[in-house]
Specification:
Elements lengths: L2 H25 L5 H54 L4 E6 L4 E4 L1 H7 L3 H4 L29 E9 L5 E12 L5 E10 L1 H15 L9 H17 L3 E9 L2 H8 L1 H18 L5 E6 L2 E9 L4 H13 L3 E3 L2 E3 L3 E8 L6 H17 L4 E4 L2 H22 L3 E10 L5 E12 L3 E3 L1 H11 L2 H23 L4 E5 L2 H5 L3 H12 L6 E6 H5 L2 H13 L3 E7 L6 H4 L6 E4 L1 H5 L5 H16 L3 E5 L4 H9 L4 E3 L9 H8 L9
Parallel strand pairs: 11-12, 14-16, 16-17, 17-18, 18-19, 19-20, 20-21
Antiparallel strand pairs: 1-2, 1-5, 3-4, 4-5, 6-8, 6-11, 7-8, 9-10, 13-14, 13-21, 14-15
Helix pairs in contact: 1-2, 7-8, 8-9, 11-12, 13-15, 13-22
This protein binds ligand C2E and magnesium ion (2 copies).
């Protein structure tokens, strides 16, 4: 019988025997009730004692059971915890309060390659990398990490002395007096994560070719540098660099050589600056330098000179050796501005000026440059409106045949009638239109207008003139050019054979294959090609042979110096002779005097164009020039 039921049962048995005795005594008429009462009392007391005893037994039994149960639960929990720690996916270390290792789990041994006994009783410092191998900013695992509640990322050391990153959590164990007895360290190897993170950061902030800072990082550092300079009353210098011959080297020696060149430049630039400065590559051959915390701005020019000097040393690219020059634009903060965006623009403007001044030099930003840049922006804005408002028109300058004295061709020259500023010469806006890409639209209009007006001239006067249209570099490299020309011809009904396209030498210098292809496509339509301003660029008579061109235009600069400059005369006569050998016609432009004309006639130049014959004429003037009543037509 269970103890829990023993007590009430005993009590019931006692009470039953006591009452039955009492009832039996009364029924039998026993007279000795005192004795009976005494016996009954004794029985009752015994019953109570027995009952109490069985109750105490019952309670003791219950408590014992609870204790056993609690013990079993504890044991189970401990075994679970033990298994969790032993088999944990994280490395677990337990040290004493001084950092002496008391326990390591299996994961720790697998990760560090230490055997259990090799680290037990050792200080946690056995896992610390050498501090002198790292800068002060790298967090290393050490006793210093043992705090009551700490977590962070630290660099640790394996048995093989390989370093690896861990995310660790440290918690302290206290005794009943609140004294730390142990530290429990849980560590997760995050080396792969860290590497991936670093790679992503590198991709986002550094140039993949040179490893230099990219634009994003550079602008950020510029921002910081300007703030710090203002705080410490110092200056920041910003350099924009552009390699003068990079494109040519890339085009002639190939992209691999170009990349190699950029790598050498990057290395050389790094040697010109201090550790706290930043060298960046914004793209292509555009490098920037940030000089921080400058106390004496007078030194900036000498740094620029040093850079120019170092970059000018020969660079070996495979078997070739090249020498490059560089242009540098410089701006200084806070003197020239404090906004990173503006400083970048300033340096860019100064660079542009450095190039304009003949390259291979440096130029400091000035307020004048800023004014000029603002003017350029204004012109760009106005150019956009000019297209929409039809403010452009064409003048035509006749070209005289020096053998027949007749005029069969004209050159179309664009003019801009500005609503408030009046006439603006092409030299003032063609460059900006080129830079902004607006030249594509403007140029398209010129081709259409020239064809339309020459067709109209034919309709009005019966004169079938050839017209030469100037192309800009951008237009020439635009693959839609052939379509634009063919549209203009179809739309106007002007014969393609009478259309001449003028290109400059510099346009032909890059990517010969594409150039020749573009020229052939133009010629396939029936139009002809003229090289304008011949002699002003990298003139090379030899490459003329390979180009499908029809006419050479001797640059005005040579004609201008005839007959005073013997060189100009020799060059002009040589160009005419070689051009004829190659079956090309020659036009001399800028003919202003009779001496010049005579020289050209003697040297068998084919055509002449210049103020001596006629200034550029408006369409109306040209029509008058060729109208039957006008005598000059027969001149
Ligand atoms: P360019 O093609 O060499 O045009 C000849 C320039 O010489 C014209 O200047 C013309 O007015 C000028 N000129 C002609 N004869 C004489 C002379 O005897 N003496 C002097 N000193 N100059 C003379 P313009 O019209 O100012 O044009 C300048 C340049 O602007 C042109 O040089 C051409 O490169 C460019 N240009 C003109 N029209 C267009 C166009 O429609 N499209 C493009 N892309 N460029 C154009
Ligand atoms: Mg021209
Ligand atoms: Mg010209």
């Amino acid at each position: 019988m269970r103890t829990s039921r023993l007590f009430p049962t005993l009590l019931l048995v006692m009470l039953a025997s006591f009452s039955s005795q009492l009832v039996a005594a009364v029924i039998s008429g026993q007279s000795d009730t005192d004795e009976l009462l005494f016996q009954t009392f004794i029985s009752g007391v015994l019953a109570i004692i027995l009952g109490a005893l069985s109750f105490i037994l019952y309670r003791l039994n219950k408590r014992l059971k609870l204790t056993i149960q609690a013990h079993q639960v504890n044991e189970h929990t401990m075994s679970k915890l033990n298994s969790a720690v032993t088999n944990s996916g994280a490395s677990i270390l337990i040290t004493d309060h001084n950092g002496k290792i008391e326990y390591v789990n299996q994961k720790f041994c697998r990760t560090t390659n230490y055997l259990h006994h090799e680290v037990i009783e050792k200080s946690i410092d056995v896992l610390s990398p050498k501090s002198h191998d790292h800068d002060g900013d790298t967090p290393l695992l050490s006793k210093a990490c043992l705090k009551s509640n700490w977590e962070g990322e630290v660099l640790c050391l394996k048995k093989s002395k390989t370093e690896f990153w861990n995310a660790i959590t440290v918690s302290a164990v206290y005794d009943k007096d609140r004294q730390i007895t142990n530290y429990v360290i849980s560590a997760i190897d995050i080396t792969a994560l860290k590497t991936a993170n670093n790679t992503m950061q590198t991709l986002a902030l550094f140039d993949s070719l040179t490893g230099l800072a990219n634009r994003r990082l550079f602008v950020d550092r510029l921002h910081q540098s300007v703030l710090s300079a203002r705080r410490h009353n110092k200056s920041t210098a910003l350099f924009f660099l552009d390699l003068d011959q990079f494109k040519r080297i890339n085009d002639t020696l190939g992209h691999q050589a170009g990349d190699q060149l950029l790598l050498v430049v990057a290395e050389r630039l790094k040697t010109c600056v201090r550790k706290q400065d930043t060298v960046a590559r914004l793209g292509g051959d555009e490098f920037t330098i940030l000089l921080n915390d400058i106390s004496n701005t007078d030194k900036i020019a000498s740094i620029a000179e040093q850079i120019l000097h170092i970059l000018k040393k020969p660079i070996k690219l495979g078997k070739q050796e090249v020498i490059i020059s560089t242009s540098i634009g410089i701006t200084i903060a806070p003197a020239d501005g404090v906004c990173a965006d503006n400083l970048m623009k300033n340096a860019d403007m100064a660079l542009y000026k450095a190039k304009e001044k003949g390259r291979d030099g440096y130029y400091f930003f000035t307020e004048d440059l800023n004014t000029r840049a603002n003017n350029l922006m204004q012109i760009e804005h106005e150019l956009r409106q000019a297209i929409a408002n039809n403010e452009f028109y064409l003048d035509y300058q006749p070209q005289q045949n020096l053998k027949t004295n007749e005029v069969h061709s004209v050159e179309a020259l664009i003019r801009w009638r500005h609503p408030t500023r009046g006439e603006i010469a092409p030299a003032e806006f063609i460059g900006i239109a080129e830079e902004t890409g607006l030249i594509i639209k403007i140029g398209e209009w010129v081709i259409h207008q020239a064809c339309r007006e020459m067709r109209q001239l034919y309709d009005e006067t019966g004169k079938a003139l050839r017209v030469a249209v100037n192309l800009s570099t951008r237009q020439f490299s635009d693959l839609r050019l052939v379509n634009i020309v063919s549209e203009a011809i179809t739309e106007s009904g002007f014969p393609a054979q009478n259309l001449e396209l003028e290109v400059t030498e510099s346009m032909l210098m890059h990517d010969m294959e594409t150039v020749i292809d573009q020229l052939n496509r133009i010629k396939a339509m029936g139009a002809t090609v003229t090289i304008d301003d011949f002699g002003s660029g990298y003139s090379s008579l030899s490459y003329l042979k390979s180009l499908p061109v029809d006419t050479l235009k001797v640059d005005r600069e040579f004609v201008r110096d005839i007959p005073d400059d013997i060189n100009a005369m020799e060059i002009t006569s040589a160009v005419i002779a070689v051009a004829h050998k190659l079956n090309l016609k020659v036009v001399a432009e800028g003919v202003e005097t009779e001496d010049q004309r005579d020289f050209l006639i003697i040297n068998r130049c084919d055509f002449a164009q210049g103020f001596l014959y006629s200034r550029p004429l408006s369409y109306e003037a040209l029509r008058a020039y060729f109208s039957p009543q006008d005598d000059r037509r027969r001149a």
